[in-house]
Amino acid sequence: PEPTWAVLPPRCIEERYKAVCGAARTRSVLSLGLACFKQLPEKVRNTYLCQVYNLTLLCTEDYVVEPQSVQFLVQHGFDFNKQYSQGIPYHKGNDKGNESQSRSVRTLFLELIRAKKPLILHNGLIDLVFLYQCFYAHLPESLGTFTADLSEMFPAGIYDTKYASEFETRFVASYLEYAYKKCKRENCKLRDSSGQHLTVEFCSYPAHMSRYIDYRYCSLEEERHGAAGGNNVPVCEKFSAYGWCPKGVKCPHSHNIDLIIDEDDKLWEKRKKRKHRWRHRKNTKVVVTTFQQESSGENMEQAQNGEEGPPRKQSCFEPAAATELAEMAPNGEGSDQVERKSKVPAGLGSASHPGGTHRAGFDAFMTGYIMAYVWMLKQGKNTDAGAGPWLPDCHNKLYLSGKSVPLQIVKSSFSKSSKAHSEKIKLAWDSA
Ligand SMILES: [Zn+2]
């Protein structure tokens, strides 16, 4: 059944907001990834120029660090020496005097607002709360005020690619790296069959800038980490389902996303051949998550162990709503939150990439790529982009884990925007 957006239970979401706010007030952002995508109209359709930034930051105020988180980050290549010696300083909360002239991360964030472009995140609630608290202003007490502020800060809309890829594609999982690699694969197929496809170009930088640039192999072609041959390690079911496994690097099973997608594709083909009639996964997801909310753990077990039906891997194992913050914990390598959030000390690494660690910038790139791909699919042959939102069904909707309904970024008639925000945004527009 189609979820009814209007019946979002506000209480528990409000609680979740408060918990994330607590984290944002006491923790700090270690690095910030930003990827800007610009459509190149003179090139073939769906060609973008992409520029990626990976900023290492240093909060100038006291903040909480968990030893475990730091350990995890060090193990995954985060350079604390670099952070403390070269990190860009910033302070949290409200502006201290007129800061709009200075060159700082806060000014950069203000520039993003002034640009009036759509903002794209992946599983973005925690991101937005941290961005607001660390680079904008003190967080409002209520969620309604927070969303009212956001709707004014980003009038072109906020998109969540976790929500968009669940809503618009039929991928069986939606964690960042899975969605990205799956989009890339599908895009390859489109290109090979001469369909319209996505092309991304990158800037070429002069040699003297090379020490600031961290290249990462990123072609349209598949990178096959030898996934197909020789490797008989079975995939880890948990990791496969939601990009997270409690065993982390010690897991005896494979966390290789290419291998995981191979398996999913094989399963899909097999089912297609058997002409097995089965409901689309998307529908099942809605059914199962609704079920999760309403029933006890026992029923969940039954749902998970059911024999028939499509692979419901994600909905089976997806952490329930309350674990949102637990996902920020240090050892959850690769969970959507942990994998890519560089803002809490639990941020950077993922061992799923041997020989490399996640960078906030690359995560931002993957997020933008997913959005560009989904948008291309939705546009189809319709060249009239029009003035409306890109994906009306996903416009201003944030993914909520464990929920079948999204959080809507709106200014409702019940909530006013915050004072700090109103003053700040006025200054931003005036000086734009
Ligand atoms: Zn595992």
From TrEMBL:
Name listed for the protein in its UniProt record: Target of EGR1 protein 1
Compartments reported by the entry: Nucleus speckle; Nucleus, Nucleolus
GO cellular component, one term: nuclear speck
Annotated ranges, domain C3H1-type: 230-258
Main localisation: nucleus
Alphabetized Gene3D superfamilies for the sequence: 6.10.250.3220, Ribonuclease H-like superfamily/Ribonuclease H
Family, similarity comment: Belongs to the CAF1 family.
GO molecular function, one term: zinc ion binding
Biological process, per Gene Ontology: snRNA 3'-end processing
Keywords: Acetylation, Metal-binding, Nucleus, Phosphoprotein, Zinc, Zinc-finger
Cited function: Inhibits cell growth rate and cell cycle. Induces CDKN1A expression as well as TGF-beta expression. Mediates the inhibitory growth effect of EGR1. Involved in the maturation of snRNAs and snRNA 3'-tail processing.
C3H1-type ZnF: 230-258
Assembly mode: Interacts with U1, U2, U4, U5 and U6 snRNAs.
Protein source organism: Zosterops lateralis melanops
Residue numbers spanned by region Disordered: 290-315, 329-357
Keyword Nucleus: yes
PROSITE patterns: ZF_C3H1
Pfam families: CAF1
Biased composition (Polar residues): 290-305
